[in-house]
Design brief:
Blueprint (H helix, E strand, L loop, with lengths): L22 H13 L4 H8 L4 H13 L3 H25 L4 H19 L1
């Protein structure tokens, strides 16, 4: 009986995997995108991070790399974005108090993460 032949393509003919940038570079990109007004979901899609929570973690790590006045400026900017998000939640979901409460808990967690 002749030997079996593989039906899969040889390794060299497969497209090369896109190499991910270093974590610090991704974190810096996440911070820059957030500063430009992108949502965490949009950042995750743009940087191919998987989920919005991954983009948020990347943003928080980048924030931690800054000190003094620059860090405070970044925190103030994020606080302002979170204030707007809170306002939108209260207006949009006013008819469903449980939903408002649940979503505001999420906003509070986002606030806690940037204050550490």
């Amino acid at each position: 009986m002749p030997p079996r032949r593989s039906t899969s393509a040889p390794e060299r003919s497969r497209p090369a995997r896109r190499q991910r940038p270093a974590t610090r570079e991704v974190d810096a990109q996440a911070l820059a995108l957030r500063e430009s007004g992108s949502s965490y979901s949009a950042i995750a899609r743009r940087l191919e991070l998987g989920r919005a929570v991954d983009a948020h973690r990347s943003f928080v790590r980048a924030l931690g790399a800054h000190q003094g006045d620059e860090r405070q400026r970044l925190i103030d900017n994020e606080e302002a974005r979170l204030d707007l998000l809170e306002q939108r939640i209260r207006e949009r979901d006013a008819a469903d108090p449980e939903k408002v409460t649940r979503r505001l808990i999420g906003v509070d967690k986002l606030r806690e993460a940037i204050r550490r």
